[in-house]
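Reviewers of the previous submission asked for a worked example of the structure-prediction workflow described in the proposal, so we include one complete record here. The input consisted solely of the amino acid sequence. No template or homolog information was supplied to the procedure at any stage.
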Amino acid sequence: MRFQDVQPQPGSKKRRRRLGRGIAAGQGASCGKGMRGQKSRSGGGTRPGFEGGQMPLYRRVPKLKHFTVVNPKQYTVVNVGKLASLSPNSEVTLASLMEAGIVTTDDGPLKILGDGELSAALTVKAAAFTASARQKIEAAGGRCEIVAKGSANDSASESSDAE
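From that input alone, the workflow returned the following structure tokens.
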């Protein structure tokens, strides 16, 4: 085989369309673009999302700053001020708060928020604390213990098994 014998595969090369070269050429006059209108003119069509001057969909939808969280963390939240009614030197868990009536529903692991004042020293076992809540509990002479995201009783039994 020689270099001059090399040819493309049959059917791989197609003729380009010669537009506007008369009726007999098949693409004469309007060149296959229809009669009139914006899409028949030179320069192609419009940009993606253009709706003819109407306010486009991407500008009509509400202006969202962030994407929604797919699996949001659900906490049972309690403010520090609610813990002031408990007796000093007691241990605070989600179960003890349910018994005391401070929390009525278990919406997930316990999280302590920093609103209110606390004077009694308490040992608080929760899944999460805000910085102000931790500061107020420790200023009152208490302790903050982070437990697993499950219930406080489960994590207490696991830690006693480990020892």
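Confidence is low (pLDDT under 50) at residues 154-163. We consider this example representative of the routine output the project will generate in years two and three.
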